[in-house]
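A note from the maintainers: we've had questions about how concatenated examples are separated. There is no special marker in the raw files; a new sequence line simply starts the next protein. For clarity in this README we add a label.
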Amino acid sequence: KTFNIRCSGQNVLPDELPKPRMSYHYGFELMYSRSGMDRLTAKSYMVNVSVLDVSHNRINKVDPLALRLLQNAREIRLNSNQMTHLPPDINNITNFAGKIMLYDNPWDCSCQNLWLQKWMLQINASLQTSSAVLCATPGWLNGNSLLSADFCSPDPHILRRRLIGLSLGSILGAILLLLCSIFLLYKARVW
């Protein structure tokens, strides 16, 4: 038996849910899409959740225990939130029984989050619409797939500036050397 709980306007999950009296096997479908929630916290009843929809919110923090408790859920909808990263403690969660949706979040694909890419590649079979999990930062990776982005690549603008600086330095050095040589030759002829 599955109980569907829809709570629009509630920006936090309830601390407890009622336990059904007639059934030993039960599950919950929690529908909290567009509720204004800004974090996902662990609740003991999450082990009985078959669908969690917290999409289209402002979630930017996820309790690692919540994801552990939701591993057997059929669907976890965390898409369309404000997540830039996930806590590194989830690194040991390597499979989900169902689908997890993480697309349409402003993921930070900088080098310190390389572990996140490796983790998402591990759970790729469960990752729904994985091609839409895109990097937002750093700017030079914006719009690239998180699964294939080069997280530790240097900023091409900085490389270009360094290359231009090196080139200009080399040219100025060569001109200075040429001018010194001309001056020394001139001085040698005048003596």
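[label: protein 2]
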Amino acid sequence: IIVDQEVWLTNEHKLGSVELLKVDEDEKVISEPATYDLYKTDGTLVAESLVTGKDNNGTGLLRVDNLEWGSYYFLEKIAPDGYGLSSEKIRFTVNALSSSTIQRVKAVDKEETTYIIATKKIKVDDINFDNGTPSFFFHLEGTTTAGNKKVYNRSVTFSEEFVNNHTDSKGYVSLSVTFENRPTGKYVLSE
């Protein structure tokens, strides 16, 4: 016996969620806030000024819920203190496979860098090559803006040939050393 029945099917899809985790090059979580905008792949702005750690007690996380199916990307708008602004598009897709879980994406930031030049200037009359070639050591120590402790060492050596060829009109000679690509921060330079 066949009985007439009406069956109504509703085809609904689940909305998606994503978490962005902000880390440095060493995979350490960056607790300082960063601000992102969220776009669809076609460039349509979905949400703006989303801040990492704002609701997660400095955990470096940013979460967005209720996303329709489609392709998206995060773009950094304001970098955390001590880090450079990234132009990388952090991409993800919400679809039938991904909407049942919270997707996790990672944003890696590099610390801002600078250089420091240390120059040693000495009076040529104070140099006695019979006592050896004068060498001077520079010690640079401090904390980066991101809170990481750093120590660097460099040296300069005044060879007799260099002194003879580079003495200025006042009887001084100088040599410089450059600490290149050092993370920005507060440092103390000692000799």
